[in-house]
Design goal:
Layout: E1 4-7, E2 19-38, E3 49-69, H1 74-85, E4 91-100, E5 105-113, H2 125-134, E6 136-137, E7 140-141, H3 142-156, H4 161-174
Antiparallel strand pairs: 1-3, 2-3, 2-4, 4-5, 6-7
Helix pairs in contact: 2-4, 3-4
Length: 175
């Protein structure tokens, strides 16, 4: 069995599993958004941070990477991802159809926000920046998560105007 995983946030720079191949990919009707309150990795229950999630929006398009798990590691990769991504049940594990740059379509495991979960939020960009600038969790500062993700998107040639605005604003708030 071939296992593809869609990376749109921290999986871009920290997949945590052996990647045999990576390809530019996009998924329709979803956007990358800081719409999940982080109470474990980039914030706490007392002072939640924000992390990215795929949020369903008709007509949206999210670009990222299709990551193929190394042959023979598929089961271990899924176990790892479930432990990492489903820690609070705010994500739903779904198999989504991705379009690769060469026109190929593949199915990939993806982590989508559960809009009915208490950690789901839709906040204005300024409020997102204020939270990201000061939150800190078990995996470090929330700003580090933003900066790493934005830098990797730039390196990959995947523009994300909202993330770049947040980078500039969070840096200004932290100065």
């Amino acid at each position: 069995m071939t296992l593809w995983v869609f990376g749109y946030g921290s999986l871009l720079w920290h997949p945590g599993f052996e990647v045999a191949e990576q390809r530019h990919a996009r998924v329709a009707d979803f956007s990358r958004s800081f719409c999940m309150r982080s109470i474990h990795h980039r914030g706490s229950e007392e002072n939640p941070g924000l992390v990215l999630a795929l949020d369903e929006h008709r007509g949206a398009l999210c670009e990222g990477l299709a990551l193929r798990a190394a042959p023979g590691t598929e089961e271990a990769t899924l176990d790892y991802l479930r432990e990492r991504e489903l820690v609070s049940a705010a994500y739903l594990e779904k198999v989504l159809t991705l379009d690769l740059n060469d026109g190929t379509r593949i199915e990939a495991v993806s982590y989508v926000i559960d809009r009915d979960h208490v950690q789901y939020c839709r906040l204005p960009l300024e409020e997102q920046a204020q939270i990201i600038a000061q939150a800190h969790g078990g995996r470090g500062p929330n700003s580090e998560y933003l900066f790493n993700t934005a830098a990797h998107l730039v390196d990959l040639g995947i523009p994300d105007a909202e993330l770049q605005w947040l980078v500039d604003r969070v840096r200004a708030l932290s100065a």
